[in-house]
Design a protein that fits this description.
Two copies of one chain form a homodimer. The first copy, chain A, has helices at residues 20-31, 38-47, 54-66, 108-120, 137-141, and strands spanning 36-37, 70-74, 80-84, 91-96, 102-106, 124-135. The first copy, chain A, is of the alpha+beta class. The first copy, chain A, has two domains: 16-85, Orthogonal Bundle (Arc Repressor Mutant, subunit A); 87-145, Ferric-uptake regulator, C-terminal dimerisarion domain (Dna Ligase, domain 1), CATH 3.30.1490. A three-stranded antiparallel sheet of chain A has the order 1-3-2. In chain A, strand 2 and strand 3 (80-84) form a beta hairpin. In chain A, helix 1 (20-31) packs across helix 2 (38-47) and helix 2 (38-47) crosses helix 3 (54-66). The A-B interface holds A 74, 76, 78-80, 94, 96-97, 103, 105, 107, 109-110, 112-114, 117-118, 121-137, 140, 145 and B 74, 76, 78-80, 94, 96-97, 103, 105, 107, 109-110, 112-114, 117-118, 121-137, 140, 145. The first copy, chain A, binds a DNA duplex through helix 1 and helix 3. Chains A, B: Residues 1-22 are annotated as: Disordered. Chains A, B: It holds the Pfam family FUR. Chains A, B: One of its GO terms (molecular function) is zinc ion binding.
DNA sequence: ATAGATGCAAACGATTTGCAGGGTT
DNA sequence: AACCCTGCAAATCGTTTGCATCTAT
């Protein structure tokens, strides 16, 4: 369902071109350490004199996302925010009980909770196991639930 | 900054009315255990023959949210999903790896986290397993660690 | 009778996309 | 020259809101 991997035969070389606007977006992402929305990033660029259309900002962010160069998450109001990727913490898996598809998820709240309860009860060297399963959207839609 | 608390003098009684549509929304929230978006909830109602406008569903959910009757979070695509604040406090155990002493602990943060990650990724019927182990204070003191 | 509630449709704000022209390779 | 990329505007989509009407109280 993703990354069909490179081409089979002698295929068309790097099909992605480097342009002024992409460089501008990358530079901005580099400069801004926090999470920013596409709109905010666009405003930053405009303010800096960089002329890049909002559509291009969205398209570039989408690309960076696919390439795993940026992280994204939703703000409470639903706006998506991005940040250049800083690979971190250990994660757990959310597994579909039907097709066994697994999604990586971070479990910071759980790590914290585990450490806390252990500490609260005087336990040392805490260790934990966490497993979350469910029925993924595809399987549910296909009635495979 | 909120809930100005009841009225000072002899003021206008309960200003919120109970209506057929609010009851329908509440019933649906009661019936549906997982997180649902306003649109989905609206579809459920329509399918069940309940006639409630989408706008009213949104307004009612907003109210329930302000009253703290429902939880909300954003799905990956930015759509907001809601769930009646069910405090189904089931508990887990903290086990000593040396003497197998077990302590009951509540894991609300974990329950919430599990439900949240499942919802955020479109998984339904979430289920989870959590195990925390460590070395209890006694065993550690006795050098049995 | 009165003020809150509802339905409908228009308004909104974020994000996406079709299309024609422009720039990179 | 070939094809990707960009800009612009129109289209989507979830959610909010104005307004006339309805109804619980």
């Amino acid at each position: 369902m993703s990354s069909p991997s490179p081409e089979a035969a002698g295929s068309p070389a790097p099909r992605v071109r480097s342009t002024r606007q992409k460089a501008a977006v990358d530079a901005a992402l580099e400069r801004i350490e926090d999470f920013v929305s596409a709109q905010e990033l666009h405003a930053h660029l405009k303010e800096a004199g960089e002329r890049v259309s909002l559509a291009t900002v969205y398209r570039t962010l989408q690309q960076r996302l696919e390439d795993g160069d940026v992280d994204t998450l939703r703000r409470e109001d639903g706006e998506a925010v991005y940040r250049r990727c800083a690979v971190d913490a250990h994660h757990h898996h959310l597994v579909c009980r039907v097709c066994w598809t697994a999604v990586e998820v971070t479990a910071d709240p759980v790590e914290d909770w585990a450490a806390r309860v252990a500490a609260e009860h005087g336990f040392s060297s805490p260790r934990h196991t966490v497993e979350v399963t469910g029925v993924c959207a595809d399987c549910a839609a296909a009635g495979r639930a």
